[in-house]
Amino acid sequence: MRSHSPSRRRSPARPFVVKLHHRNVPEQALLTDLQRIAGLAKADSVTCPTYERLGQFNVTTILNRFGSWNAALAAAGLTIRNVRNATDDELFENFAEVWRKLGRQPVAYELVKGDGLSRFSTTTYQRRFGTWNKALQAFAAFIGGESGDREGPARPKEKEACQIEDRHTPRRINWRLRAKVLIRDNCLCRMCGASPAKDPAVTLHVDHVEPWSKGGATTLDNLQTLCATCNIGKGDCIAG
User: Fold this and answer.
1) Number of neighbouring beta carbons within 10 Å of residue 37
2) What's the domain count of the chain?
3) Which of 2, 16, 91, 211 has the greatest number of CB atoms lying within 10 Å of its CB?
């Protein structure tokens, strides 16, 4: 006689919930619900799929009211994680800033943690450049270029004689030149060796070796990476 296996207990089916598209929901009610979902997720942002699963209203209701998901997040005071209209320069500048904060090259997953490290998600970079590796290659090519290392308009040839008396470059270091210095120095303080990769509390600065106030130029060969402590201690002295 064939024995029958005991019947398996089936879990009760989840109710099928339909979220209707409401036209007259007060704007504040939509924003409050977005903030509620962010609180439940313990995050500073909310994605469409998350809201579709947990939210009180239909995603379409929010999109129609605010025009876009990012506009709704901004109105609710939440962080915008996926910016579609950022320029390449903005994406590269953000990547350089993340590199400085970490003290090393970022990896893909670190740009989706939602901890305020990056202004843009990995998805934004992949959408723009095709893959994460292609984004890295584009950043390397941009940083490695020669243009943009010195700020200020080029002097016309007829003023070459004046350059002997005025060789000063602008004091401000643009983000691209700053990134070149940090990467060249491996994000290590050249005085004490401190780095955010070793100690997250370390903040790195880019400093003029020969002080700008004493005629030092804002060029790659006259810039160095220093931690905040060493930079303050060095002051306006020439590093020896």
Assistant:
1) 20
2) 3
3) 91
Rounded Cα distance between 175 and 96, Å, is 8
CA dist 176 and 172 (Å) reads 12
Kindly state whether residues 186 and 139 are assigned to the same domain.
no
What residues are paired with 208 via a beta bridge?
223
Q: Enter the pTM of the model.
A: 0.59
Residue 80 lies in a domain: no
* Within a domain: 14: no
On whether residue 196 sits in a domain, the answer given is yes
For residues 49 and 71, membership in a common domain is answered with: yes
pLDDT tens for the 240 residues of the chain, in order: 555 545 445 545 444 444 545 567 888 999 999 999 999 988 888 888 889 889 999 888 888 888 778 888 888 988 877 666 788 998 999 999 999 999 999 998 888 645 678 878 888 898 899 999 999 999 999 998 765 454 444 334 434 433 433 456 788 899 999 999 999 999 999 999 999 999 999 999 999 999 988 888 999 999 999 999 998 876 655 554
Nearest Cα neighbor of 27 from 70, 61, 77, 78 is 61
In a domain, 114, yes or no: yes
The answer on 117 and 94 residing in a single domain is: yes
Q: Which domain does 40 fall in, by range?
A: 27-75
Q: Report the SS3 class of residue 226.
A: strand
Residues near 102 by beta carbon (within 8 Å), at least 6 away in sequence: 110, 117, 187, 196, 197
Calpha distance 232→240 (Å, rounded): 16
How far CA 99 is from CA of 61, 68, 165, 171, 193, in Å, comes to 39, 30, 38, 23, 17
